[in-house]
Amino acid sequence: MTTRSEVARMIDHTLLKPEATADQVAALVTEARELGVLAVCVSPNQLPLTGTEDLVVATVCGFPSGAHQAEVKAAEAARAVADGATEVDMVINLALATTGRFDAVQAEVAAVRGAAPAPTVLKVIIESAALDDEQIVAACRAAEAAGADFVKTSTGFHPSGGASAHAVELMARTVGGRLGVKASGGVRTAEAAQQMIDAGATRLGLSGSATVLDGFSD
User: What PANTHER family does the annotation carry (predicted)?
Assistant: First the structure.
């Protein structure tokens, strides 16, 4: 069993509801510091944040549909970095993935990578529940070829569902430790979090971090 402190250092404590207020985001930051998590992840309109000196600041781009032009995603990522984000979670264009246009997926990831170069951490959301296994593998390969740092299961907003242990295991096997794997979407219990970690997740996107962490001990 993974320890509580180990899990905490894997968590992106997340608030991406479109109706989230500045006060709710401030409360998220306070809770993140109290819980000892690694990062907070918020919508780009909430940047810049204050009180995050000991936290990683992550945001999203092309969120949640991914149905944006690549140059729009790139511009959004560049603005987010200028506003203080050190990690960007971008959503791929799912239509490109489901029709096998993985060169185009790679190109849009590369556009965002160019707009938000290292040391900014780039995570690529492939919406794994909407893809078959072959498409998951191809999307991960495209993300890696474009210079991404992580592949990520889900936005948490797609009707097909969120993270699954099967998808995480397949993603982890595909990237072979060269990239991180973030499990996000529907991970609400310690048991589910441990299942994702066992499958190969190196980062967890959680909105209910306190509840999950309560199920772990040091």
Answer: DEOXYRIBOSE-PHOSPHATE ALDOLASE (PTHR10889:SF1)
